[in-house]
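REVIEWER CHECKLIST
Item 1: Sequence provided? yes
Item 2: Single chain? yes
Item 3: Sequence as submitted:
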Amino acid sequence: MRAVSAGLNRAHRLGHIGNPLAWRFDHLPDDNEPETAVFLTPSQRNGLVSAASLRAGAFLRGLELSGARPKELASAKVGDFDEERLKLSHRKGRAPKLRARYVVLDQDGVAFFKAQTKDKLPSALLFTADGPKPWRRDLWAQEVRKAIAAHNKAARGSERIPTGASAYSFRHARISELLQVYGVDPLTVAAQTGTSLRMIERTYFKFIRSAMLEKLANLKAKPA
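Item 4: Structure as written out by the authors:
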């Protein structure tokens, strides 16, 4: 995307303008951090996982427990899990480089990923869409849409899932809950989820602020 964008910008500067609408990029869903985040409650996430197919549900649960980007988890292999941490890789930077990080998992996460590695070779993918078929953006997007439709048939009120929800919503939920519910500092959350403090501030600032206000309210007056 960056290489194509640079080429188009250069062509634009040289006067090859044409139709201005042709120069605009559409955001790729579930690729980079979306501008508008859809946050799902634990109940909504459980409903979505339950309504999804077995393989899709497992993939979504993995996103929920790791805070991974869908693309990262789709490419993760059995050998990337060491029974305590999960190694995830993502291309970042102006000159995109593959950067790896280790995500520390809680007890539920360790138990879940152990189950995913059972009877699989280290080189095998942790999650597949169908047999050995790897997950792709179009496949998980289709599965999420189907699961949302199935869940919303019987759901009422706050249990209904917004149609704008996506696989990425599970990453949003993990980050926001680490900040707000578990009180993990933003720097640690950024390192664990492979994002930046700037992105956390832009997308999740309201959670940082509310957590900070709560901590300030609980401070005891210092002795004189």
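Item 5: Key structural point noted by reviewer: Residues 97 and 144 are 29 Å apart (CA to CA).
Item 6: Recommendation: ____
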